[in-house]
Write a structure and sequence with these properties.
Strand content: 35-45%
Shape: rod-shaped
Strand order of the largest sheet: 6-7-5-4-9-8
Number of helices: 7
Radius of gyration: 26 Å
Oligomer: single chain
Distance between the termini: 25 Å
Number of strands: 9
Order of helices and strands: EEHHEHHHEEHEEHEE
Amino acid sequence: MGDIIQLNVGGSIYTTTRATLCTFPDSMLGAMFRESMPTAKDDQGRYFIDRDGPLFGIILSFLRSRQLVLPEKFGQFDILAVEADYYQIQPLIDAIQEARSKMRRGYIIEVIEKTECHTLTNGDKMHANVTTTISAHIDVAERLNFVHGMWKECYWPAYRYVTIHHSSGETVFDLAVLRSKPVWPVLGDFLHNNDAKMIERSDISHTEDCLLVPYKEHKSKSIITKQRWLIPCLKWPSKTK
């Protein structure tokens, strides 16, 4: 089952193994290369399949990894679905339907930024802290590469922590950062430049008098900014192992 196979699919040449083509034994390819179906060959002795050649590369990748990896800005879902149906690869058919569904609805990123400013009654500023929490689907968070990429552009945070939990049946990524500079201007530019759209924003301000050791009166002002962004799916490079 591990012998090397050369294919001519609609004029596109591929090299793989019999075992890869038989990944899903109940598919048409599985039946073909278990030698239970007659298979045509071209004049070079390569197995010939009269189907869409370039799209077969996506199908072959799925057979190898069991993951649907699509080019950026891919727009041939209808044709790919027809090809998957022809080859009778049910897991691929399901993966295409899921990808199309996600593309239609997009992903939401929620950004909550809390700025706390402390000022003495004589007007002297004490300090300011900014805490930013970003929540997104784990796939989007990985593709945006929040921790290792974007943060370098807006200075390293003084403190950060990450949590991963489940919400509405999906895996959600939370990144919280404590720093002295606001993050959202850089994050907003980053998302805007990648065709994300801000769909909601709200600002809440709160001021209160406080007493701080060594018993100096000061005012504490909190500003909370909340943003929600819609990201078109498949705009980001797909994950690779």
